[in-house]
Amino acid sequence: MAQFNTIEFKDGVLKLIDQRKLPLSFEIFECKNYREVDFAIKDMVVRGAPAIGVTAAYGVYLAALEYKNLTKEEFLKEVLRACDILYVSRPTAVNLMWAINRMRDLINTLKEDSIDKICDAIKDEADKIAKEDENINKKIAEHGNNIIPQNARILTHCNTGALATSAYGTALGVIREAHYSGKNIFVYADETRPRLQGARLTAFELVKEKIPAKLIPDNAAATLIRDGKVDVIIVGADRIALNGDTANKIGTFMLSVIAKVYNVPFYIAAPTSTIDFNIESGKEIVIEERDSREVTHIEGIRIAPEGIDVYNPAFDVTPNENITGIITEKGIITKPFRENILKLKL
Ligand SMILES: CSC[C@H]1O[C@H](OP(=O)(O)O)[C@H](O)[C@@H]1O
């Protein structure tokens, strides 16, 4: 099992594995205030929908510590302002907004209490969100393992492992569970241009745990699927609409189309906190567009000529009709997605 803490609040600072540096170097990025947390999320020091939600929650605690000597009115104003800033650090992964809203609700509930009590409650809530995420991922893994056949060859995209969450992972957590339960699985991991979360992070986790795998260029996936070398595809999610349309790392939509053409089961694995109950379809999901240097450079080395324009969406939306099922901690959601997703609210 991966033995590292993706996110750890210790000695008054938030310690994050610097995922920009993996796998070549294992470094810890320390956030001493919420502004550094905002930077860490924006620059993808930490990334992965659940992980940025947990990180933002601790960012609110850092703000509370920073402002605890102000008057109550000023304290509340500044901490809620920090919530607003963290809320928009990245636009697509709904876990970020879900975590911040949970912290805002807590603060508004406790605003008559002492500042010290509010600070302690904020820390407890951030710890709770982190612990819940780990437990949720283990439930996702157990449910997901039920759809993984013996000797399955599994294709996955981006990184959805311990590095993308508090621990264990979502889609990669299902893969871990299948491996440790003796299913003799094999993994094809997409490198996942342009930030290479597959090559750098998923490969790091798979090698660390000796899970049999091959790293492939994103463009090789179609041939593997066509040639019958993939039994199931399982990916993560950043935001799921009521109808099951799912935003995930760029390249996911393309995989889903190929899977549909060749009848390969295509699963999403995500906590229910990734479901946005306020949107009907994927059309309403804001897709983050990132800096062009992510495409024109690799590890700081220019690979494209000066002057070329770039389109760099960080995510795409997979339509629900391409999705076999959505694996959550509450079980596997199948079609009709809207009806079955709404049942989660009951
Ligand atoms: C369980 S991680 C979910 C999701 O987040 C990743 O995006 P990013 O690396 O940009 O934060 C990717 O879309 C994963 O599938």
From TrEMBL:
Gene transcribed to yield this protein: mtnA
The reaction(s) this protein catalyses: 5-(methylsulfanyl)-alpha-D-ribose 1-phosphate = 5-(methylsulfanyl)-D-ribulose 1-phosphate
Matches recorded under Gene3D superfamilies: translation initiation factor eif-2b, domain 1, Translation initiation factor eif-2b, domain 2
Site (Transition state stabilizer): C158
Pathway: Amino-acid biosynthesis; L-methionine biosynthesis via salvage pathway; L-methionine from S-methyl-5-thio-alpha-D-ribose 1-phosphate: step 1/6
GO terms under biological process: L-methionine salvage from methylthioadenosine
Species of the source: Caloramator quimbayensis
EC number(s) reported in the record: 5.3.1.23
Pfam families named in the record: IF-2B (PF01008)
Keywords from the named record: Amino-acid biosynthesis, Isomerase, Methionine biosynthesis
Family (UniProt): Belongs to the EIF-2B alpha/beta/delta subunits family. MtnA subfamily.
Name used for this protein in its record: Methylthioribose-1-phosphate isomerase
Enzyme class at the top of the EC tree: isomerase
The keyword Isomerase appears for this protein: yes
Active-site residue numbers: D238
Function as written in the Swiss-Prot or TrEMBL entry: Catalyzes the interconversion of methylthioribose-1-phosphate (MTR-1-P) into methylthioribulose-1-phosphate (MTRu-1-P).
Origin superkingdom: Bacteria
Keyword Amino-acid biosynthesis in annotation: yes
Binding of substrate, residues: R47, G48, A49, R90, Q197, N248, K249
MF (Gene Ontology): S-methyl-5-thioribose-1-phosphate isomerase activity
